[in-house]
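Protocol step 4 of 6: structure prediction from sequence.
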Amino acid sequence: MVSSGWIFLAAMIMAYGVANLLQSKAAANTTVHHSFDPGLLVRLAGQRTYLLGLGCQILGFVLAFLARRDLPLFLVQSSVAAGLGVTAILGVVLLKWSLPIAEVALLTLLLMGITALVMSAEPAHSRRLGTAGVVALAVTVLVIAAAGFFAVRLHGALGSVVLGSLAGIGFSAAAIAARPLANEHSFSGFVGNPLLYLLVIHSLVGQLLLGLAMQRGSTTAAVAAMDAAGAVPAAIVGLLLLGDRIHEGRGWLATLGFVATLVAVVGLTRYAEPQHHHATAGPPRPKPTALRAAHR
């Protein structure tokens, strides 16, 4: 019998691809923030485009949550990156984005990597995460928030990649919390599980960091950095602690697919060009003096 996780996985990729496109468009139309200000989410929420994108991201999040019930984290987290392909295609068709040949090649490599992971993954339920793991997730959210507080001072492509990477680590931690949480069978056990609240907090911090990253440069670079940084921790924790499985004799295929996926998303952070039609975030300009203002 085919696991329903495969259906959830395919739908998740489509939902995340549309979400990336819509949220990027909204971030490009919002005043650039130079501080770790949660008010950015409030301003973005005032745009219908962002709300539609957020709805698609929430749908993708729910689908990913359901997929993690049976599928290993190394597959689900890496497949989130496949949404980049959907975003790129929609951007070219709807927003007239131009994709350089290098980016097309990297997106093709990404597809090949995800295909290899799908062929090597074996569906299985998750093991429970111990108290030490829960504490580690709680500490991680504080570390990510502190790093984000300083990272907002970075501008341009570097700021986009660093903030996107921090967002990816946050979403990776949320995925680690979601894998065992998805196997809770009672409502009381689900609501009373601290992993639920860690999942929500990590997701909110990751969402804020992603919004800041998208304001500073290429959408593809921000999302690729997020996916690359988010795939590795989840894969390691899933295989070592949560009971993720690989089909016997296909370990080499899983390794090849994972490496190809990482190379593709890291490469996209290098070759992706800004797709916004306004200047990306740079250092804040000094306010003009009264004399200069009068001269203007």
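Step 5 (inspection) to follow. The longest strand covers residues 121-122.
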